[in-house]
Amino acid sequence: MNETHPFDPNLEIPQHVAIIMDGNGRWAKERGLKRTDGHHEGLKAIRRVAVAASQIGVKILTVYAFSTENWKRPRSEVSYLMKLPNLMEAELLPELIENNVQVKIMGDKGSVPKYTIQSIDNAIDKTKENTGLILNIAFNYGSRAEIVEAVKEIAGEVKFGHLDPDSIDEDTISHHLMTQQLAPYNDPDFLIRSSGEVRLSNYLLWQLAYSEMYFIDTKWPDFDKKTFLSCIGEYQSRQRRYGGLK
Ligand code: FPP
Prior knowledge:
Blueprint: E1 16-20, H1 24-30, H2 35-56, E2 60-67, H3 75-91, H4 93-98, E3 102-106, H5 114-127, E4 134-141, H6 143-159, H7 170-175, E5 190-193, E6 212-215, H8 225-237
Parallel strand pairs: 1-2, 1-5, 2-4, 3-4, 5-6
Helix pairs in contact: 1-2, 2-3, 3-5
């Protein structure tokens, strides 16, 4: 376990927290279980962390549930990962609704099975009036593909004379990314990656430009409120400078 800093409810709470939920497979292997059992436990960890985040006043939690690269995994595992939204609907949604959480999704819906999309759409629909924490699930998401799509849209606007190329700035790019649905909190303040791996894995490459990052050894299925609060304590110990001096 990494050294922890105490969480202080009176200090700044990050408004947008992004998480790479890593270590499900290794967690399961250590226990002689199937990798898919690790993903199932990972779903329960989302519930614990979403409730904790909502209690302390985090506005947005963006979690990496399925990356565009995850299609390379064995067919049986991909097929289980595609069923996770169905499990989420059955096992997570009632408690999310109880906690006033609003579910949003970002990613490419093409090539995702219909039954998966249906559960995702149900979760979005059943929580759309909720006003608390936004649980933004990155599903079939890849940051480079997201940037390519944004560039294509911007190029199209230029081509049809709706946009002057000289007026393109950072906001133009930002507004064309999938995180625009989270405006005005498009960019995470804080990124957490579990299980000791130190890389971004094609996650929110543009949006994480100035985020604080924390790589914690705990594997995702072991994540609970205490772990999450200790991560927030770590965030509170940082001094954000955005390239300037303080
Ligand atoms: C990475 O661990 C985790 C994933 C690829 C899946 C994460 C998904 C969940 C926690 C469930 C959430 C789903 C929804 C729809 C809310 P890994 O398998 O790469 O672990 P390893 O590095 O130990 O092998």
